Each structure stands twice: as structure tokens, then as C-alpha cells.
Amino acid sequence: MAYGSSSALLAILEHVDAEAVALVRDVTAELLGADPAITRTIAVDVKDPDAVARALEGEHFDAALVVSNLANIEVYRRRGLAIFFVDILYWYSARKDHAVWTAAQRGYAQAFPGVRDRVEALPPAVRPVVVGPLIRTMPPRSKAPQGTLINLGGVRSRFIDPGRAPMFLEWVARILHEVEPLLPPGPILIAAGSDACAVLGPILPPRAKAMSLPQPAYLQALVDAALFLTAPGLNAVFEALWLDVPVVFLPPQNATQVLQLARYEAVELVPPGINLPGLVPALDLPERIDDEGAYTERVLAALQTALRSGAVLEAAARHVAMQIREVTGREAARRGFRSSLGAPGGAAIASDIHRFWREHAP
Known about the structure:
13% strand; 2 domains; 362 residues; globular; five-stranded parallel beta sheet; Rossmann fold; single chain; four-stranded parallel beta sheet; alpha/beta
């Protein structure tokens, strides 16, 4: 979720007039370390509260803006920081009884199918504010778009170590070799973390290049692209929808993407057939996740099965090729889904932060 959480954070910070210090590691360091919205970064394992507590010694902050990371809430609370907590995956996990929903100055949930119904079923005291997609202000779309942009996100996560990440990358490279003749004229640019780019470089089609891009450069590549291929994440999809860039979905690489892709199928952004439970029937498809680590293990096992099966590899490549041929026919579905999400929500969260500062100014 490195791209989704980082891009959501930047979508808020572009509206916040403050010194913004980001805690980073791995792909988030690449995305946030080169962004003008970030004043400076602190490199630390953001899933280790003891390490975070040590990294913050001697630092002075008055608020913590947290995107979907529950690991350090108690660290911030002990320091007396006002916590603004944003859950971009509110629909995803089965339990929503974490103390952050009462400890935070304010909590937010990014809109997605099922979020509003779930929020309305909760007691008012613990309901987050539902906000629209957390995407940055976009450059204008190119009048003569060309080429293809592909977003693979961070590939790694706390559940997917570098040794297992190449499985998904190898699958993507195989698909690209099959569908490359169908892609628009022009360059094929793959955006991913630097370690993923190192794996992809030798196995891509000749006109494809993998690069780690800071977000401003990535968004410029998106507005210039004639076609967008993506792993089934959240924010990368939202950005393309807001620009009316045609979207084609790749197979999922992790637990969140399996469930997200099922929801994209339900709103007809993509026809069924590319999700892992359909390609590898041994993988179950829960409505929500109780144990993300355990489900991720099952997803990775399904990826291994897929890579060993010529029939599955061929089916996935055929599906992506079909999506490319039929992409214009899903324009109405893309616009309808975009409309259902509401207006982008970064400015609303920033306004709450500014209001807090005004009310608590010395």
C-alpha cells in the first residue's frame, strides 16, 4: 500500500501550510523524500513503535497526520500530539474497534464501495468522516496523449518481503510481452519502487522501461499517457479516473488488491476473470479480512500456482488483451464510479487541521 498511503498523504499536505516531516522507509522514502510537499524525512521502520519513539526523541511536533498505520498511535498519544487519522481502507478489515477512533482529534475514511453503509451502522462517537478520493490536484490532460503508463505500486509490504515480490513482477512481464503489440504507439513506462525496477529491467519488452518516479513526475506521465495499466490498488485508479485516462487492470499482487478487484468487478470497471480466486480456485474470496498476514500467505501461494500453470498465465494475458481492446466500452462505468465517490477530500482534511491550529493557538 506504499503508493496509496503516500499519495493520500500528499493529497492532504498540498493544502496544509506547515512544516511537514514524514516518517519513511523503502518505497515511501522514494516517494516522499523527493516531493516538494515534504519539508524533510526521518528514516525509520514505521511498523516498529519502539523505533519510532526513539526516532522522535528531540523532535517537536504539535500534530500527527497518520494514513492507515495503527502501529504508532500510542507513541503519538504519549507525546500529547493531536492525531488526525485517515483510513484509506476502511471497508477492508473486519474489526474497527481500535482505540484510534476515540483517541484521534478526528478520524476519516476514504470513500469506496461499502464504506458509507459501514460508517452509518456505527455509534456516532466512533464514526469517521467519509471523504472523497485523496488525490492531488492534477495537471491538465494532454491534448495528444501517447504511450502507456503502468503502475505497480510498491510491490513489497510488511507481509511480502523482497524475496517473494518478484513472483508478481515476473507475471506482469509475461503479460506485457503478450499484449505489447496491442498497446498504443509510444513509450511504455512502468512506475514502481527501485528494487522492483531492478528486477523488471532485464525481462521487459524492448520499448518498456521501469522507473521509480517522484509523484509530480508520475502524475505528468499519467496525463500524457493514452492508456493506463495498473495493479488493482486504490489511489492510482482514482487518479486515472479523475483524468479520464482509460484503465486496464492487471492481476492482484496482495490481499487488499484481491478484495479491491472484486469491488471493481462489481461496479463493472473490469469484467470478471482476472482476479486470483477466479484464476486459482483454491484461493478463497472473503468479504472482509480478519487476519491480513494469513490471507496474504494464501494469496502468495496462489501467485506461485499461477506462475507454474501455463493455462493460468495464458488466461490472464488473454483477459488483459481483451480489456485493452474493449477499454472504450467501459467509459460510462468509469465515470459513474468516479461520481459515486464524491469530490476529492484532501482539502477538507487540511481545513480541519488548520481549524485545530487556530483554535489551539497560544
